[in-house]
From TrEMBL:
Organism encoding this protein: Aspergillus ruber (strain CBS 135680)
Protein name in UniProt: Adenylate kinase
E.C. numbers: 2.7.4.3
Any GO molecular function: AMP kinase activity
Subcellular location: Cytoplasm, Cytosol; Mitochondrion intermembrane space
Major site of localization recorded for this protein: cytoplasm
UniProt gene name: ADK1
Entry comment, domain topic: Consists of three domains, a large central CORE domain and two small peripheral domains, NMPbind and LID, which undergo movements during catalysis. The LID domain closes over the site of phosphoryl transfer upon ATP binding. Assembling and dissambling the active center during each catalytic cycle provides an effective means to prevent ATP hydrolysis.
Residues that coordinate or bind AMP: T74, R79, G100, L101, V102, G129, F130, P131, R132, Q136, R204, R215
Keyword Manganese: no
Length: 259
């Protein structure tokens, strides 16, 4: 018999976590009837927070599939509006071309536009990359209140900054979908190719140690007050993102199925 190693045990735990999570998914879909539009009370309205490299790009697509909700990654949404030359996209492009930051009003209106017009959002949404400040969180709440909706969960993927260096410098991204992989921890089935489309993966130019450290300083300065904001409303939960992806997924499902 081959010797038992920590790597083998970790791999088995990850596999068990993924299988248990999948069972929970299927049971939830069976009981809820995933083909039926959900009522406002049943919809999943989630804020997914976390520093670069924490695993949002891995977990958000799985949440989208499990809950039949839309994944609104603000960077992708902004690029899409600009590419489609919508009124909001033209306004945002003008500001960006001048080197400015797109206003909170424009970002919130882009989210509202997706909720109004994107059929995938009829069962709820996973918001990724917004809000980054307390002012943005307040604007988002105001917009949702006008729609008679409330956020249900603000989940923060938490991980030590030192661990992010190894993660971020090996990260690979599929630009069109936002799906992310890792050269060591979560490699694609084929080298440098997206598992779903077979299209090439890229490594972002800012996925290096110096750029990461600057982004982390900004993240902590902005997001700590946002986490405190959601803690006051009782919807914030922290998840240990240093775990294997399957265990992180199981922890996420534990938050959403707590009640």
């Amino acid at each position: 018999m081959a010797p038992i190693t920590e790597e083998a045990v970790s791999s088995l735990k990850d596999m068990v976590g993924k299988l248990e999570a999948r069972v929970q998914d299927l049971e939830g879909r069976l009981s809820n009837g995933s083909n039926k539009p959900k009522s406002v009370a049943e919809q999943m309205r989630i804020i997914l927070m976390g520093p670069p490299g924490a695993g949002k790009g891995t977990q958000a697509p799985k949440l989208k599939e499990a809950y039949c909700a839309c994944h609104l990654a603000t960077g992708d949404m902004l690029r899409s509006q600009v590419a489609k030359k919508t009124d909001l996209g033209r306004e945002a492009k003008k500001i960006m071309d001048q080197g400015g930051l797109v206003s909170d009003d424009i970002m919130v209106n882009m989210i509202k536009s997706e909720l109004d017009n994107n059929a995938e959002c009829k069962n709820g949404f996973i918001l990724d990359g917004f809000p980054r400040t307390v002012a943005q969180a307040e604007r988002l709440d105001d917009m949702l209140n006008h729609r008679n909706q409330k956020l249900q969960h603000a989940v923060e993927l938490q991980i030590d900054d030192a661990l992010l260096v190894a993660r971020i410098t090996g990260r690979l991204v599929h630009p069109a979908s936002g799906r992310s992989y890792h050269k060591i921890f979560n490699p694609p089935n084929q080298d440098m190719k997206d598992d779903v489309t077979g299209e090439p993966l890229i490594q972002r130019s800012d996925d290096n140690v110096d750029a990461l450290n600057k982004r982390l300083v900004t993240y902590h300065a902005q997001t700590t007050p946002v986490a405190d904001y959601y803690k006051k409303t009782g919807i914030w939960r922290g998840i240990d993102a240093s775990q294997e992806p399957g265990q992180v997924w199981k922890s996420l499902l534990g938050v959403f199925h707590k009640n």
